[in-house]
Amino acid sequence: ASLRNIDRSMEEAAQNLGAHGLRLFRRVVFPLATPGYVAGAALVFIKVFDDLGTPLLLNVNNMLAPQAYLRITSVGISDPMGYVISVILVAFSILSLWASFLVMRGKDYATVQKGGGGLAKRDLAPREKVLAYGVVLFILAVVLSPHIGLFLLSIGTIWSFAPLPDGYTLANYARMWEASQDYVVNTILYAGLAATLDVLIGTAIAYIVLRTGIAGRKWLDYLATAALAVPGVVLGIGYLRTFQDVNVPFLDKPLASWWVIIALALTIRRLPYALRACMAALQQVSLALEEAAESLGATKLRSIRKIVVPLMTGGILAGFVTSFATAAVELSATIMLVSSDRDSPLAYGIYLFMQTPSGRGAGAALGMLAVVIVALGTVLSQIIIERDKKLRTAGREH
């Protein structure tokens, strides 16, 4: 996105002054794209730093997130070290966001876009094409190798010390489906409820921030986005400790062991994604449309319901799909809140399967289902966004 938003005239001016190749990238392109690089680096650091599922599945316990989980689950909920580690996790996450703010502070990266958005495309020489394809293929191989290995494990019979499985079968998928129907149903329920709440809350916050003059409205945006700085395992531990002694009326059970708390944790974790989509959609809705409706006698609520929300549909749907797809495979927060296998979501089911050698094939099959869910969600979200852009462009032309 940062590269796409660079003013092309800046690149053209540098080329006219003799800058080309690496010099052009180092002196012009990279500095202008710095906001995107810094934001991406901060988000990647936070996501890797708070990842719990990967270390647990690989049996790597000497990291902060697994240690926080193991201290609470093995020693007990009153173990102080679990909370100390949780505070350290939050501190490092906030520190990464603060560092990204310091890098950007006092610098202006704005461009006027008068030369057309995005860098100019050019034809590559044959040698450059070979090098470019080589880099792309290498990156694809690194990125897709876990998915390929997961697929082979899901259809393999025995796979131990050979490059490929000894045989192939679909029995793992049959076993997965027989044992995982509750996981799938629970995931649809939790992720669907979380995504619905996310777009409702995200739409409300977006309207308050962008369309009202309420004092402190920016802090509402900051607080909603701050969920990115709270690792999932820390959120789970916090909910577990807070609601462990709070009983649900008429059910006579702790709120921390009720499935609703899982959906609530997923809602908080994915709210920033839906909020950004809703805010982007609302920013594209002209305030003049609301003013015109109100001048014709429509109340504020009616203008929102009849004009604003319908025009935000593309962004709302994209936010819903993104929140649903990512919540469906969330493990870090939910692993602390699952009280019984009957209430387990899909990601926790994968974790349970992978605990025994005999269950790894079925666990891999369930993992492939998770990959498909995320892939479909990503593609569908992109289709919705592109379709919404085309409709808006066509509307402006007419």
UniProtKB/TrEMBL annotation:
<keyword id="KW-0997">Cell inner membrane</keyword>
<feature type="transmembrane region" description="Helical">
    <location>
        <begin position="307"/>
        <end position="329"/>
    </location>
</feature>
<feature type="transmembrane region" description="Helical">
    <location>
        <begin position="188"/>
        <end position="210"/>
    </location>
</feature>
<feature type="domain" description="ABC transmembrane type-1">
    <location>
        <begin position="1"/>
        <end position="96"/>
    </location>
</feature>
<protein>
    <submittedName>
        <fullName>Binding-protein-dependent transport system inner membrane component</fullName>
    </submittedName>
</protein>
<feature type="transmembrane region" description="Helical">
    <location>
        <begin position="28"/>
        <end position="49"/>
    </location>
</feature>
<keyword id="KW-0812">Transmembrane</keyword>
<dbReference type="InterPro" id="IPR000515">
    <property type="entry name" value="MetI-like"/>
</dbReference>
<keyword id="KW-1003">Cell membrane</keyword>
<comment type="similarity">
    <text>Belongs to the binding-protein-dependent transport system permease family.</text>
</comment>
<keyword id="KW-0813">Transport</keyword>
<feature type="transmembrane region" description="Helical">
    <location>
        <begin position="130"/>
        <end position="162"/>
    </location>
</feature>
<dbReference type="GO" id="GO:0005886">
    <property type="term" value="C:plasma membrane"/>
</dbReference>
<dbReference type="InterPro" id="IPR035906">
    <property type="entry name" value="MetI-like_sf"/>
</dbReference>
<feature type="transmembrane region" description="Helical">
    <location>
        <begin position="83"/>
        <end position="104"/>
    </location>
</feature>
<dbReference type="GO" id="GO:0055085">
    <property type="term" value="P:transmembrane transport"/>
</dbReference>
<dbReference type="Pfam" id="PF00528">
    <property type="entry name" value="BPD_transp_1"/>
</dbReference>
<keyword id="KW-0472">Membrane</keyword>
<feature type="transmembrane region" description="Helical">
    <location>
        <begin position="222"/>
        <end position="243"/>
    </location>
</feature>
<feature type="domain" description="ABC transmembrane type-1">
    <location>
        <begin position="184"/>
        <end position="381"/>
    </location>
</feature>
<feature type="transmembrane region" description="Helical">
    <location>
        <begin position="255"/>
        <end position="272"/>
    </location>
</feature>
<feature type="transmembrane region" description="Helical">
    <location>
        <begin position="362"/>
        <end position="385"/>
    </location>
</feature>
<keyword id="KW-1133">Transmembrane helix</keyword>
